[in-house]
Amino acid sequence: MSTEIIEVSQKRELKEFIHAPTKLHRGHEGWATPLYSDEWKFFSRRKNKNFNHSDTVMVLAKKRGRIVGRCMGIINKRFLEISGEKTARFGYLESTDDIEVTKALVTHVEKWAKSRNMNKIVGPMGFTDQDPEGFLIEGFGNEPTLATYYNYEFIPEHIEKLGYGKEVDYVVYKIPVTSEYPPIYKKVLERLSKKNEFKLVEFSSTSQIKPYIVPVLSLVNDVFSHLYGYVPLAMEEMEDLAKQYLPALNPKFLKVVEKDSKLVGFILGIPNMDEGFRKARGRLLPFGFYHILSASKKSRQLDLLLGGIDREYRDRGIDVLLGSSLMKSAHDSGIKFMDSHLELESNTLVQAEMKRFGGQVYKKYRIFQKKL
User: What's the number of domains the chain is made of?
Assistant: First the structure.
């Protein structure tokens, strides 16, 4: 039976779009349903500021009236202005194990992008670097993180059959948490303590964190500007991210370094809460919040979200100061290992730090591309 493609234009269709992954991942071991309240905000043209500077299309795939897939097309105008490229993005692709469904969804988005004079499409990607990007291609069966895709193995296979090739790969390291630091870290820490040039700032409450949110995200804009596909965050987007993540942050897993009261580096991790999200089933009430909070306290996996150092102060030991402090807090909290999050395969400097602590690659993600 042919696949029916429907462009989302009504609230009822948007609800189907938001709930589609839960239906399609039923029985998929490891899948954690995101909070529906967050999904409604993200896909709302009124609440998500990214829609203000992007062209988008959201589509559903149906067979016999049943939802069998979804996909979103994005043209981030701000990225086009910065890069000079005519590149569209596809993302939030879900499908049954039916190449015809995936083809119908992706082809519709390709035609939409081509009609807007785009000559290339990449994905999966969202509006910004803070959205999930890249399909998992290696390391299936490991615990996912909320900031990444958790796709079936057949999805990247479908994409390749539709003529897509590799754009970039990301690697993810599994880093054992230990009380022992690499010898070179000990030497650097001794040197830093003597010079007293940098100040490590640690936190014990979310109220202490609030004044640092915008400076941290401003530093992200600066240090991430050269990374693949990065789009700088506007002030209103920084404020929205702060509102989204602040309730989930454990203050002891945010580390900041200052020099003369200026923020010059930071690292942020959150305990993996997947088990809580599985029990919450997409809803905070009546018991979802309890399940998520409980999972956060019991988690033995720390997911690294963001980190950055001011370019002017790199190679001065700030990475050692941040890494050793976070490692100590993780060890003291009973964390067994860290998930590094996505690291560009070409970023050998960051990967070297992961390896110093005994980290090993255990997952790999890929962004695909196709000429239109």
Answer: 2
